[in-house]
Amino acid sequence: MKKKCLIFILCLSVEHLALSDDRLFAWFAGSSWNQANTPDRVDFIGNSDIFGDIQFSPGEPGHTTGKVGFPHMRQSRFFNPNLCLGSLGRSNHCAALNLPLGNDGSRTRHGITLYWSQNRTLENQDGFDLAIYESGTSSGGPDAFMTRVRSASTNEWSFWHYQAFNHFEKYVSGTRDEGTFVTMLNLDQLDIPQGDRIDAIQIANMMPTDRVNSDLLIAFEGQVFAETQSKARYSIPGHYRFGHAKSFAQGSKYDPDILYVAGLNSLSRKD
Quick one: which H or E segment has residue 15? Predict the structure, then answer.
């Protein structure tokens, strides 16, 4: 597999790294994180490649949203917007990355690979390990995306996994219903053993033909399989809003705007 596009997200500046740990912390939509643990490298994926038995479309993503009010304004002095995925290290404001290119997930699948500079890795600890922020509106709801991770010890990728969002919070600026959906991911759900470490994350938009192999206890969520719309034991991905389960409509809600991925645990260098 040849990487045809490498985008460098600027690392935390010397000024940021010199700050005390409390100033490196950011928070939004019920989650807080240390910016030093945020992935700071990204590759685009597409170009008709196959990742985890799932076919990707020609071309690559690259379009972004406009500036968003993330995180809270009182953090803006110490927040590094270059770690937002739509900023791509070339902008001084926070924006989200459109997946896929053209914003039409009914026909196209693209994604990104995120990782940390200096061979750093994230440990699977108790509780949630990653927070994935998707820009959207409360009226429109979330869009379907899937995630997988790579074990630093085996160099093998997990299966693709769909996880419903946990919280929504409005931005501090923008229209009344603009904000971000946060999906809290526990690496246990991707069969990463406790204490094992990951060194890369992949995120891609789902498509209407995708299904999840969910169980009765966690409807709508689970391992993702492509082109399985005719298999009865697989379900359409979905989410919960206001206490009600809601599946994604066919042909819509498959173009997520991925804003930010936060590592919730401390990092260490790969042996």
Answer: helix 14-17
